[in-house]
Amino acid sequence: MAPKPLTLDGRTLEGGGQLLRLAVSLSALTYFPIHITSIRANRAPRRASQPAGGLKAAHLAAVEWLARASQADTTGMEKGSQNLEFRPLQGGKFVRETKKKNDVTGAIVWRDVYDVDGSRLVRKETEIKLDSPGSVCLILQAILPYLLFHSPDAAGSSVGTSSGGQGTTSSVPLRVTINGGTNVSKSPSIEYISQVLIPMLVEKVGIPPITSQIIKRGWSFGRADVGAVQFDLTPLPSMSKLSEFNFTERGEVTRMHVSILASDSAARNTLKKKVIERLLARHPDVEMLFPIEEDTKNGARLYLLIVAETCNGYRLGRDCLWERKSNASMLETMANTVTKQLEEELQRGGCVDEYMQDQLVVFQALAEGRSVVCSGKDMYATLHTKTARWVAEQLLGLTFDKSGTCHGCGFEVGEDFLARRKTERDVEESAEDLERLEIA
Predict the structure, then answer these.
(1) Whole-number pLDDT of residue 339
(2) Helix (H, G, I), strand (E, B) or coil at 27
(3) What's the half-sphere exposure (Cβ side, CA atoms, 13 Å) at 406?
(4) Nearest to 384 by CA among 406, 361, 363, 407
(5) At how many degrees (to 10) do helices 136-149 and 354-366 cross?
(6) Which of 68, 137, 145, 330 has the fewest CB atoms within 10 Å, counting from its CB?
(7) In whole angstroms, what is the distance from residue 331 CA to residue 337 CA?
């Protein structure tokens, strides 16, 4: 008998898209059916005449892709919906290219790409399309756990031989292209993803290498413009587990990475000069790097990211996306704001910035063993982080303590987690029955 969906109140804690994205992602991965009510109900509408919350285009794009990939039955999967029921096919495998139309669960998900002579599978490709500049990076956040931890099916998805672990095989590389916004307000930028999130996941968490390539920038202002980013990654080997990780010794800051996007060279040079002055005043011995200095070709498009890199490989970032025409006083304000906020992050003493916290929760929860993420003084946790922990606890049956430490569920890539949870519950119930008999 199919299990009853777990009901999640979408108004809980942060009550926005974070809850939705992580819940659907874990549901697709674990086959655990969910019912989310009052979706994004804590989000005020743009206009008084509009309803609060509900699924927006970018949320819907991520949910639809996960529904196709996990062959889920859904109810309420439509724009503006405030209730969603998501029932993945238990034991489902990668969905290959089909010719079905008007069928969400049977639509194209993966396209197999072979070498020139057609004898070897080179990679699998998929694309998520938005016709508006919704955040590419938030869509990636929703689907990344599934991409990394879901086992490709045996009929052509595994390549090579043993990866070193007993019973594991190397996995076929994946190429994911997401159309939407690369620089969008209230969302992580593609620069933050490529310079902070991905390096931390690969170098400190132990995720296989991930690369990103901007095909075209997408902006939510200065005339809305849809862009695209291509991500290349390889899933964790089948039957393997992510090892525990500990973020506890940050170390001294050794480098500052400064990325500037502005409409003309004068603005870029002015902003660069002001940022250098402020950073060197606080960190006179730090190495300064400038990975991106780019012309946005629009006076209303201005972006600054500063990333502090430590001797132990941790990265903390702060940024600002300006949504109005730039001027000299605004450049001063931007330089002051971002350098001050980054300094506050560093003074807190944690190994992660406040935007990285919540993005590590799912990996703590899925890893095997005790994973620790030091967020600094008083073990500060953002509302987004608390929300992510709550969702993981509901679906995976684990607990985060007040310090943010978690003993993960030890998810085995490709496993039927729903069946495992049922077995565990049956064992617990049998033990309780036996205890009652002994007492009697």
Answers:
(1) 97
(2) helix
(3) 28
(4) 361
(5) 20
(6) 330
(7) 10
